[in-house]
Amino acid sequence: GAVVSQHPSWVICKSGTSVKIECRSLDFQATTMFWYRQFPKQSLMLMATSNEGSKATYEQGVEKDKFLINHASLTLSTLTVTSAHPEDSSFYICSARGRTSGKTHNEQFFGPGTRLTVL
Amino acid sequence: GQNIDQPTEMTATEGAIVQINCTYQTSGFNGLFWYQQHAGEAPTFLSYNVLDGLEEKGRFSSFLSRSKGYSYLLLKELQMKDSASYLCAVRDSNYQLIWGAGTKLIIKP
Questions:
Q1: Measured between alpha carbons, how far is residue A97 from residues A27, A35, A75, B98 in Å?
Q2: For the segment A44-102, what is each residue's pLDDT rounded down to a tens digit?
Q3: For residue A106, which phi and psi values (nearest 5 degrees)?
Q4: Which is nearest to A22 in space by CA: A43, A4, A3, A49?
Q5: B43 vs chain A: nearest CA distance in angstroms?
Q6: Alpha-carbon dihedral angle through residues A72, A78, A79, A83, given to the nearest 10 degrees
Q7: What pLDDT score does A1 carry?
Q8: Which residues in chain A are closer than 8 Å to B48, comparing Cβ atoms?
């Protein structure tokens, strides 16, 4: 149980285009979803936290107009990188925390990640 | 400020035991997590400690001392597939996860 899927697993796009990444909780209700970015050989960097039905809370230094996050349902959150540039190339990972059969999770469950390359 | 410290890299031998330490200073404490991350993959959950003591799960054990702001992850009977980064994370008083930079564990035959 507690599986999180992410799509696409990798994407290559041209500079200036927008890319949407989907994150789904497959077998539990994700009341909170997190979006992380990870550059090579570096630790996870939290970009934003979103609760279902609410606006996302962005970490300091993360542009909310550039990284659009939508968490419209208990099983789906999307991250849209708008007007992507080469410096946005990174590994984007979503994670979710919620409940299964009424029991609230302590841990976050991670999706497999999306590797974005902007040319 | 909030801080999680863990060694950058460790090397161990297949079949041996290794202990990865983590010390933390956070605003409040609501649990400590260990995750495993293989290169190019997302983290996977290993363990959760919220009370002092040792939690054992197969070959992996995790220990917590809240008074010392200290935890360790113990890996026994090391296998080559255990080569990965191990991330320590603490949930603070706002229920935010504060992440360590990770410890890269290299297993040699």
A1: 12, 12, 11, 15
A2: 899 999 988 788 999 999 999 999 999 888 899 999 999 999 999 999 999 999 888 87
A3: -85, -40
A4: A4
A5: 6
A6: -100
A7: 63
A8: 106-107
